[in-house]
Amino acid sequence: MRRALRGAVATAFLAALLAAPLTPASAADLRIANGGFDEGLTGWSGSHSPGGVTAVVWDGRTTARVADADPDAAYGRESLPGLPATAGRRYTLSADVWADSGAAHLYVRFRDASGRLLGGGANASATGRRWNHLTTSGIAPTGTATVSALIYSGVADVGTAYWDEVLITGDRTDLGVQIESSAPNATTFAGGSAYALYTGTADANPQLAVIDVAGEKVTRKITIPDTAATPTVGGWAAATATDGSVYLGTYPNSKLYRHVPGQSTVTDLGRAEGGYSFIWDLEPGANGKVHGGTYNDGRYFTYGGGAFTTIGAVPVVTGAQYVRSLAHDPAADATYLGTGTNAALIRFDNLTGRVDHLLPAAYAHNSMVGGLTWTGGRLFAWIDRTLLVLRVVRDADGSHTAVTDAAITDVDLHHSPARDGRVWFVREGLLHSYEVATATVRATSVRPGLDVTGYTWSGGTLVGLGAAEDGTRIFKYDPANGQWSSRVVSGAPVLPAAINALGTGPDGRIYTGGYLTGGTGVHDPLLGDGDDGRPDTPTRTGLSQTDSLLAHDGRLYIGAYPSAKLYSHDPADPWPPRLRYTGGEAGSKADDCEPGKGPPPQDRPYALAGGPDGTVYMGTVPKYGKRSGALTLWKEGTPGRTLCVVADQAVVSLAFAGGTLFGGTSTRGALGVDPVYAPGASATLFSYDPGTGAVRPHPLPLPAPKAVTALAEVDGRLWGLAGGSLFTLDPARPQEITVNRLFPDPDYAARPSLAWRDGVLLTVAQDPRHVYGTAGDQIFRIDRSTKALTVLLTAPGMEGLTADRFGHLYYKINERLFRLVAWP
């Protein structure tokens, strides 16, 4: 089913603001046929005096020349037949024109279904021997069926003009899906088939794909059902029970689903106990049962006999929010649980309820035990790319301890079941084996070329299934003879990916970054195709989840999660971008910006800014379980560095103003901190002096703000958003802060994500009177002089804001990109 994940806006603005109209969004771009005159005058009809208009090349561009030597005649061409239009909507027309002599005029025109002219908008005119960009608009009158463009030289005009790039848009346009993904998040195997779970979005349900391992193709695709009250977006958990049933664990509704191989449906078993949102892992137990682990209440549960049962305490480990991974020893009926955000590893005896803690002390500062497998008589535990091989020993008093046989670094998450005394995994791109008896690691020369989400054995052949840049791949390797293959699975689901970040590149195109599954979309403003259900251009692969985008000095800079990676891309170069810096490798896991100590490793780069000397600044949220974000400085030719700036607060906004970098903080730390907001803390503004390296706080005259989510330079001053308040200051006198209350603060308790990335402020050159912004599901503009606020649009679920070269605004709702024409 199709549905919206987000309901009504959790936090209301003032009643007057909520009255702002929400106009319908048209689907896809309106494309004037031959708007660039590359096909001569095809599609342009003469509506005035005959002649006067020819197709020529001018200044290296294909153009329409309007030559008017008669002061008693009018010459022009109209883009007929017109494009579909709706009465009551505003349409904006733009064009490039070189007025070699005299004046050139541009009109938008509206016609009814019979072609009768109903009227048009105001005339836009240009003069001057240079390329001018003209814009005009008009509201379609009653009876409108089509809209068209008229390039024109009127009666009493004399002159010659060259026209190019005639473009049109409605007031609000749904540009549709921008990113697609064919990456499975979870995989299990049963009876010669792989069962792969593909994540959807708030408006597109996830799918289960049944993949024939031998034939390497999808034989069945099943859409995961849900309800409007408990929508299913995706899942990270899949397991095959001892009775052959396939189980799936999903989010954000913590539901469990069962699929019986051979059937064409999945059964919704309901929501597991508790008020959490994720089932993170599933593991088969005895007698057809499955065990599961959850976020955010750290619960360990079992499903069997048609019912859910919570096992042990809640949370199963004191302070745990995540049961991130499970492994089951069927001989002992013991389950191993990896928890977070302060990493713990326990053995839970399902017969006696005894809990034994096994995590080696050297890993106590990690945030999560991310993957567990019990195989070959050993426990394999994946912790931040280190694979621990643990021998579990029963002590004389009946307790259990773990002895570390091996600690293998730089290992991908998943590893194979043991066979012939060996376990297989990918390390630094190469397939490796681990021999259990001798604790020996051996590398092969095999490069599987995919992120494996599940392994199995088919006879003597190792099989892995997972995600690659070109879709879902299946990998096969025969240890006996070294033969291997890695092939794309045919028929795998291709689903839209939610947009997580958007920004305008140095090439003027709108870039979007995908949530969870990554990927990058590229939209050419006003030149999209007519299919809003698929991206305009193929999804660019090679990046994980994008959190921020910045155009600076001719490059596109990209901040990506996890590990706060900074990439750069020159639009003239091939994709993918170059990795420049990794914030997840900075700092110490034991530190959290305590006095005299550095930052913890960083994870979510929500803020980017560029300095005049080419330095790129990145503001980040730390790794799970930590509070202190950081400021990263990177410049071409330097290794980059990460600094503590405000202890116990994340850095979520940045802007360069008056030769100084300013940053805004959030009192919300990383996921997994408890309480969510630092007790008694107030978000603040800070400055960083690039010359001296000095960091200076600038407390805001506000009552305990939770976050400063937006900063921008406007007319030489710094503007910022802290909750529902606008503050401004002169960078030369930052202690003199002026505050204007715009609207009530967001409900940060109900929607804590707003404390990371709610607000945006930006300016557009075409409108020097206003500053545009977003906060709390609304787009608004602020008068630069009076600070008066006007809400332009209210749309539940809208996030982000950027502008194209025409001054049009772009935002996103789930997987869809929208354009809003806010002026003239």
Automatic annotation (TrEMBL):
<feature type="region of interest" description="Disordered">
    <location>
        <begin position="577"/>
        <end position="605"/>
    </location>
</feature>
<feature type="region of interest" description="Disordered">
    <location>
        <begin position="526"/>
        <end position="545"/>
    </location>
</feature>
<keyword id="KW-0732">Signal</keyword>
<dbReference type="InterPro" id="IPR008979">
    <property type="entry name" value="Galactose-bd-like_sf"/>
</dbReference>
<protein>
    <recommendedName>
        <fullName>CBM-cenC domain-containing protein</fullName>
    </recommendedName>
</protein>
<feature type="signal peptide">
    <location>
        <begin position="1"/>
        <end position="27"/>
    </location>
</feature>
